[in-house]
Design brief:
This protein folds into two domains: 178 residues, Aspartate Aminotransferase, domain 2 (3-Layer(aba) Sandwich); 56 residues, Aspartate Aminotransferase, domain 1 (Alpha-Beta Complex). The chain is 38% helix and 13% strand. A seven-stranded mixed β-sheet has the order 1-7-6-5-4-2-3, sandwiched between helices. The chain is built from twelve helices and nine strands. By secondary structure, it is an alpha/beta fold.
């Protein structure tokens, strides 16, 4: 967790989070660290194994810089990077479930998430139950003693239903279940996962954080309570993103605020224009007053990104 205060504006965090120039000989940006082997100054240090970096797979200063920055933006305890958004989703789910458990999954999740649940988790003996994304607090009726995780994605992938995350989280927590939220669409700039009840927040950083279609990256941000399970699973799976991809994530993060603002403006202009076209039956954009979930979006989100759908 960063030492910066929660009162700092997000745009200020984007400029400064994860940067420690004093450790980089005064250079503003953390350089690309490529490497596997890390030397210890003494046998005692090796046996203690408590220095910041011990092996390349377990992290580098480049990885730490981006993880620290994302954790600040999310308002979480720790962020762990993965090689892709899907690997972040898989890792977060595997951290909390075992054979015989149940997982409630929003029926409108990202298709690869659904494929992972239907193939890998079911093969491991986990029961998957898909729920209506507009269910809200009534999700309590689907939760059983075997429910370990509620996996949400808001807005829904392609269909853009906005979920009542505080109500869903309250029901899940009352039953002792964890809430994992895919926050890729809004990013932490436009939706604060933990302030709305999530225990784990995921981003396919390939999308808006990297922002230039030239790297693959995922991010899992956790609360203090959920960090140990996710960190252990992350290490057990041997996950480590490439150093160049992480650096490109740091590069993209610095301009995220400017880019998202433009995404929002351009998408809304296009959505409003499409809504007037005779060829278009419906525009699915939660920031439009015509969207069924607009009131929830207006209550919980501070902006919208560039992705929306149309029905012809």
């Amino acid at each position: 967790m960063s030492k910066r205060t929660r009162k700092q504006k997000d745009l200020t965090r984007l400029a400064h989070a994860g940067r420690e120039p004093a450790r980089q000989h005064g250079f503003v940006n953390t350089p690309i660290y490529r490497g596997s082997t890390v030397l210890f100054p003494s046998v005692a240090a090796l046996e203690a194994n408590d220095q910041d970096f011990t092996y390349g797979r377990l992290g580098t200063p480049t990885v730490k810089a981006l993880e620290t920055a994302i954790a600040e933006l999310e308002g979480g305890h720790r962020t762990l990077l993965t090689p892709s958004g899907l690997s972040a989703i898989a890792t977060a789910l595997l951290a909390f479930v075992a054979a015989g458990d149940e997982v409630l999954v929003a029926d409108t999740v990202y298709r690869p998430t659904r494929r992972f649940c239907d193939s890998v988790l079911r093969r491991l003996g986990v029961t998957i139950i898909y729920y209506n994304p507009v269910i809200g607090g009534a999700i309590k009726d689907l939760i059983t003693k075997k429910t370990r995780v509620v996996f949400a994605e808001s807005p829904g992938s392609q269909t853009f239903e906005v979920q009542d995350m505080p109500a869903i989280a309250a029901a899940a927590h009352a039953a002792g279940a964890r809430v994992i939220l895919d926050n890729t669409w809004a990013t932490p700039l436009y939706f604060k996962s933990f302030a709305h009840g999530a225990d784990v927040s995921i981003q396919a950083a390939t999308k808006y954080i990297v922002g230039h279609a030239d790297a693959m990256l995922g991010a899992i941000t956790t609360t203090e309570e959920t960090t140990p399970a996710v960190a252990k699973t992350h290490e057990d799976l041997g996950l480590c993103p490439g150093p160049e991809d992480v650096y490109l994530g740091l590069r993209g993060l610095r301009s995220l605020g400017v880019r998202l603002e433009r995404h929002q403006k351009s998408a809304l202009e296009l959505a409003r224009w499409l809504a007037e076209r005779p060829e278009v039956a419906r525009v699915l954009h939660p920031a439009l007053p015509s969207h069924p979930s607009h009131a929830l979006w207006k209550r919980d989100f501070t902006g919208s990104s560039g992705l929306f759908s149309i029905v012809l």
